[in-house]
Design a protein that fits this description.
Elements lengths: L2 E5 L2 E3 L5 E8 L7 E7 L6 E7 L4 E3 L7 E6 L4 E6 L8 E11 L2 E6 L3 E5 L2
Parallel strand pairs: 2-11
Antiparallel strand pairs: 1-3, 3-8, 4-5, 4-9, 5-6, 7-8, 9-10, 9-11
Length: about 120
């Protein structure tokens, strides 16, 4: 059973930084893609950043230049470094992992971690 566990959320003032971590357990296979999504109250879940096993990245326009995603393939972990946080970044952040194998596509989600940006 694959599990994704996020950590690192919390309360921070505007302009501050947070570092989110995602650790995957229960799988010895390398995920094709790992990423972060977020959901603010009364809004749909949206992509924040994704990274392939080869290191290619994609960011939402609103976080480019402020957030950086990275991963450790050997440990099946992903990190989202968030700088210059704004109140609009307040949301529950979810780790996501996708494995495309010979028997199909498998997608996993973490339980979410709250990020609150407020003065």
């Amino acid at each position: 059973q694959v599990q994704l566990v996020e950590s690192g959320g919390g309360l921070v003032q505007p302009g501050g930084s947070l570092r989110l971590s995602c650790a995957a357990s229960g799988s010895s296979s390398r995920f094709n893609v790992m990423g972060w999504y977020r959901q603010a109250p009364e809004k749909q879940r949206e992509l924040v950043a994704i990274i392939s096993s080869g290191g290619s990245t994609n960011y939402a326009d609103g976080v480019k230049g402020r957030f950086t995603i990275s991963r450790d393939n050997a440990r099946n972990t992903a990190v989202l470094q968030m700088n210059s946080l704004q109140t609009e970044d307040t949301a529950v952040y979810y780790c996501n992992a996708v494995y495309q194998g010979p028997f199909g596509r498998y997608e996993y989600w973490g339980q979410g971690t709250q990020v609150t940006v407020s003065s």
